[in-house]
């Protein structure tokens, strides 16, 4: 047994609150996580975690071991960071988090370029639709959509995300172009959502924000499905402009209701202050800022 690896797994279990979440964050199977925990308990000669079907909690021995193990892991990480900073060469594993859709469609396509530039860096990409806790989850860099609270993190703005309503020219010729948001009641709308048949789109009418319940011909919890339907002339879709930039550029989709668009939402890179000193983190942040805004060719 690699005691250091098992210690890392145990700390992740305690931070995550359950074995499955720890496994997902570490890229390990539930079986592997469970085996390493049992092996560690056998080596230390104490039960560290009380496990039931629905609940996990640290024993008294577990709490004492957790506090010391976390301190040891952080000391080792700090030592490695210091050695890396002395060399000035970007190297090691980089832990990156991003929202699922943005990660799949935009960030993933950029990673080969970064890996080619930095041959000594490896990337672990975690795609999750929730705010990650960088320090607790061991994340070096997080890409996040939306306004940010003052959290003491280092923030670098990447872009503004603009939601646009658009449709295929053929659909607009058949059904007519809506002049105001109220006209959407007479249109076929393709909406993102988890509740079938229920969708709400918000618009800016002067200084007033308006939210409208819209009729949906197609409701899905996947933007790619909705964009494909819009391209086929099935109706109007509301999506981030970056996702359909190439479709708008070549005329396959056309924006409507542009005067009623909501203000854009910021897209930012987040990192811990001490992590930005690491060459691998600094190189990745610089790469994203340099390449994110470059126009992309149609697929």
What labels describe this entry?
299 residues; alpha/beta; D-Maltodextrin-Binding Protein, domain 2; 3 domains; five-stranded mixed beta sheet; 10 helices; LysR_subst-bd; DNA-binding; sequence-specific DNA binding; transcription regulation; transcription
Task: Write a brief caption for the model.
This protein is an alpha/beta fold and 299 residues long. Helix content is 40%, strand content 25%.
Explain this structure.
With 299 residues, the protein is of the alpha/beta class. It has 10 helices and 14 strands. It has helices spanning 3-16, 19-26, 30-44, 60-87, 100-117, 134-137, 169-175, 223-231, 245-249, 279-291; strands spanning 49-51, 56-58, 92-98, 121-127, 141-145, 154-161, 163-167, 189-192, 200-205, 208-213, 216-220, 236-240, 254-256, 265-271. Strands 4-3-5-14-6 form a 5-stranded mixed sheet, with helices on one face. The longest helix has 28 residues, at 60-87. The model is unreliable at 295-299 (pLDDT under 50).
């Amino acid at each position: 047994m690699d005691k250091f690896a098992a210690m890392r797994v145990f700390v992740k279990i305690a931070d995550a609150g359950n074995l499955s979440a720890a496994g997902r964050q570490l890229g390990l199977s539930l079986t592997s996580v469970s085996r390493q925990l049992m092996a560690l308990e056998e080596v230390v000669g104490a039960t560290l975690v009380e496990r039931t079907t629905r609940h996990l909690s640290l024993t008294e021995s577990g709490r004492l071991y957790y506090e010391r193990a976390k301190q040891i892991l952080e000391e080792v990480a700090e030592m490695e960071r210091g050695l890396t900073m002395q060399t000035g060469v970007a190297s090691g594993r980089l832990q990156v988090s991003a929202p699922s859709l943005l990660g799949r469609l935009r960030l993933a396509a950029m990673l080969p370029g970064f890996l080619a530039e930095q041959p000594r860096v490896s990337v672990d990409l975690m795609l999750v639709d929730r705010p990650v806790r960088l320090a607790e989850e061991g994340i070096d860099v997080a890409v996040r959509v939306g306004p940010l609270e003052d959290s003491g993190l280092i923030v670098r703005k990447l872009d503004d995300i603009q939601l646009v309503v658009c449709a295929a020219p053929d659909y607009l010729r058949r059904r007519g172009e809506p002049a105001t948001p109220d006209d959407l009641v007479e249109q076929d709308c393709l909406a993102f959502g988890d509740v079938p048949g229920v969708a709400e789109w918000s618009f800016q009418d002067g200084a007033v924000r308006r939210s409208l319940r819209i009729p949906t011909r197609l409701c899905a919890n996947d933007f790619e499905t909705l964009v494909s339907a819009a391209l086929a002339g099935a109706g109007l879709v509301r999506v981030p402009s970056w996702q359909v930039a190439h479709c708008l550029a070549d005329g396959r989709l056309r924006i409507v209701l542009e005067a009623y668009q909501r203000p854009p939402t910021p897209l930012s890179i987040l990192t811990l202050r001490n992590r930005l000193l690491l060459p691998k983190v600094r190189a990745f942040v610089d790469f994203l800022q340099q390449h994110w805004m470059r126009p992309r060719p149609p697929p």
